[in-house]
Amino acid sequence: MSNSVTPIYLDNAATTPIDPLVWQEMQPYFENFTANPSSIHSHGRQAKVAVERARKSIATLLNASPSEIFFTSGGTEADNTVIQSAVLYGGVKTIITSPLEHHAVLHTAEAWLKLGLVELKLVQLLPDGSIDLADLERLLQENPHALVSLMHGNNEIGNLLDLNVVGALCEQYGAIFHSDTVQTMGHYRHDMSQLPVHFIVGAAHKFHGPKGIGFLYAKAGAKFYPLLHGGAQERNQRGGTENVYGAIGLAKALSMAYEEMDAHEAYIKGLKAYFIEGLKNAFPNVEFNGKSGDVENSLYTVLNVRFPQVVDGDMLLFQLDIEKISASGGSACSSGTSVGSHVLSALNPNATGAAVRFSFSKNNTQSEIDRVLEVLKKLIPAS
């Protein structure tokens, strides 16, 4: 392989590159408007106005009130805030979640379980990894007033959750509904005036914004208590000096995502469908984990591929990396120091072969997909 080969980045579910226009929007606040927004002098007021303008922009896009938007360091902090608040202050004695959740939710719930403060109930899954809604209703019947935490779009297998259906069930049984929307924010529209969800979250770096900034949406009347105590920032709900340029970058990135969403969805779906067809032609026994192979009914940015004939998934990822192709992996089992994907283990613990997650963005091209297919054909036996 020539050193002149251009690297191909297909790990956008992990993080996306910042858009140059987002950086351009942020740059003045690194250089010229550097005051603390909590300061009452003119420089501080300038910074405060910028933060509040960003908050209003995000709220407008979500059809929410600015008072419902709270800036955080990212999705993990936002998820932790909701769960801790529900357990310590909200009277919640049971958390209902799934074995497929992001660790920001699953490990947090497990931590409160270990402290003996809650019971943890895991909803059953259907064979394709979808949430068993009948089992969810059973759990809600047995545990009313629980906290239900179920993600909107799964970061590994691309399964989507119907927020309206789950929200209606939670409303029926008096449960609090929190959804980790990190993977879908900026890729799908969220109309919070219509969605029956108490809390959702976002992280700017998942839609071409900066790392280290996110937000928590808390529906009016849905109380939560601070995870971080300190100053009176974020209306006394999150201590710490505001990340001014981060908030500006988040608002700009989300605004661009909404403006371009339909075009980007159509374009990325086309890339994904093209890749699926190429994989099927090259590897007749290829499989797709969860619903990720269903272009129209899964998270369009994620494709989780299983190659049954590959024994060592880590080696495949290493070989792809050598070829300057970045993707991520996970297998249904663990061996040695390599810890497999908890999502794939829960979905199909007996599966064999290597699983690779390819995740796409607006920056990827069909020629990149062609090169990935050629490299895979070189690395993997056809059957």
Describe this protein's structure.
The relative contact order is 0.16. This protein has helices at residues 20-31, 42-61, 75-88, 103-114, 133-142, 163-172, 233-236, 244-282, 313-322, 342-347, 366-379; strands spanning 8-9, 69-72, 94-97, 119-122, 147-149, 176-179, 199-203, 214-218, 287-288, 302-307, 325-326, 328-329, 354-359. It is an alpha/beta fold and 383 residues long. The protein is globular. The strands form three sheets. Strands 2-8-7-6-5-3-4 form a seven-stranded mixed β-sheet, with helices on both faces. Strands 9-10-13-12 form a four-stranded antiparallel β-sheet. It contains eleven helices and 13 strands. Helices cover 39% and strands 13% of the residues.
Rg over C-alpha atoms, rounded to the nearest angstrom:
21 Å
Please summarize the sheet with the most strands. 7 strands, mixed
Coarse structural class = alpha/beta
Overall mean confidence score, pLDDT? 94
Count of individual helical segments: 11
What overall geometry do the principal axes of the alpha carbons give?
A: globular
Provide the fold topology:
Blueprint: E1 8-9, H1 20-31, H2 42-61, E2 69-72, H3 75-88, E3 94-97, H4 103-114, E4 119-122, H5 133-142, E5 147-149, H6 163-172, E6 176-179, E7 199-203, E8 214-218, H7 233-236, H8 244-282, E9 287-288, E10 302-307, H9 313-322, E11 325-326, E12 328-329, H10 342-347, E13 354-359, H11 366-379
Parallel strand pairs: 1-11, 3-4, 3-5, 5-6, 6-7
Antiparallel strand pairs: 2-8, 7-8, 9-10, 10-13, 12-13
Provide keyphrases for this structure.
383 residues, alpha/beta, 7-stranded mixed beta sheet, 4-stranded antiparallel beta sheet, 11 helices
